[in-house]
Amino acid sequence: MKYYSMKKLMATGARYLIAFGERSNGKTYQALEYALIQWMKNGSQTAVLRREKEDFKGKRAGAYWDNLICNGDGVNRVKEITKNKYDTITYYAGKWFLSYYDEELNKYVNSPEPFAYAFALSDMEHEKGNSYPKVRTVIFDEFMTRKGYLTDEFVLFMNTLSTIIRQRDDVKIIMCANTISKFCP
User: Fold this and answer.
1) What is the pLDDT of residues 29-63, one digit of tens each?
2) Which of 32, 105, 112, 159 is deepest in the core (most CB within 10 A)?
3) Coil, strand or helix: which one is 183?
């Protein structure tokens, strides 16, 4: 199978990058890999956006980065990108942390600070006062849908960006989606 590559999109230097295509071809994988590489390179954090807070509950949130822990070729990209410092990713209270298993402590140990945050557009009224000064990548996953959109979704999306980005112009916004139909790309 040929996997998606964001190299051409990234080379444009555009602030908004839109990637859509067939299911399971690597769009989200590429965005998440980019985010993790940026964290390791310069400490910039990522905001992951979805429509509903249900998308960040239980196994959905915990497994969100699993393809980087063991990709289609059986490679742990987390280990490679972090140069063996971490081997997994854990989710707690709306935040993702790099982690490793400590044999002596017999438990997973998280990095001191999160490298990514989860945001649900449906819940953004509760986020307005918060600040995320280290976020330099925003990933809006599944930005197109078959089921329907939230009321005033574009306004919610722009308000969410305003909360996360504030007045900065150094943030990449990556929007990923599957092709819906011949009428909706």
Assistant:
1) 889 999 999 999 999 999 999 988 888 887 788 88
2) 32
3) coil
Is this structure's pTM higher than 0.85?
A: yes
Question: Which position has the token pair 């992951």?
Answer: 48
The burial class, CB within 10 Å (0-12 / 13-18 / 19+), for 28 is: buried
- Per-residue DSSP letter, 57: S
pLDDT tens digits for range 60-91: 888 889 988 988 888 899 999 999 999 999 99
Dihedral of CA atoms 39, 75, 80, 65 in degrees, nearest 10, equals 20
Q: Six-digit token pair at 156?
A: 């919610």
Helix (H) or strand (E) holding 178, with range, is strand 172-178
Q: Are 29 and 37 in contact (CB under 8 A)?
A: no
Do residues 101 and 88 touch, judged by C-beta distance below 8 A?
yes
